[in-house]
Please model this.
Amino acid sequence: MTGRQLRTLTTETLADRTYRAVRDAIRSGELGPGAKITERGLAERLSVSPTPVREAIRRLEREGLLDRTGPRTIVVSALEDTAVQDLAEVEVALRGLVARFAARHASDAQLDRLDGILDEADDLLILIQRRGSQGRPVDDYIGTLLDTMQQFNDTVNACANNPVLVGLVEQTRVFSRAERRTRLLEHISAGDLSALDRYTYHRALVRALRDRDAREAERIVMEDARGGLAGRLPIPEAEAAAEERGSA
Model:
């Protein structure tokens, strides 16, 4: 890293990075419920000064992920099942709202970009399925496919033209991006290539965005989000909320 790059790292940037790192560690279970943490310990672990750590801790306390049990004692909160359920409902609803905004604001260039990304993903999926049926290694191609689909999701977020809403989605994720990726790779490694089939919904989403059909775009995204959490976090209330907004 050059000196110029180092000078561009502001305290706010470091605080954001520190916040995401600690939050992901909590969400992944690396920092389990009841685990004690200290500002100094986190600063050393993340190679940052105490200032961004202090700001990150304050944010995580506000979100209920950390509890301060004493002047210098901070522990990871033990979220009850109902709290996780509530968080999942919020995440799914917010992701649906992102799709609604994307249907209203996506430019033609952004929509063309989404189609181009899906063309790349289709080619990769065909290659993965062919190599998998032949018993040949697919790990590198799967990694590339997941990176490609992350580009798709990031582009949809950009289409929404609402960074505040996108930021709220990131804050309410039940599982971090890293953990979602790890879980999917575990299924694939076990021979379950059907775990990749969920990505076929993206074509329907792009059609809805091109049609400026906000209601359909929201429905598609929320259905996919629920599918990603199926078996762990059933969330019927989120579905009912989406239907109520659509009929309004």
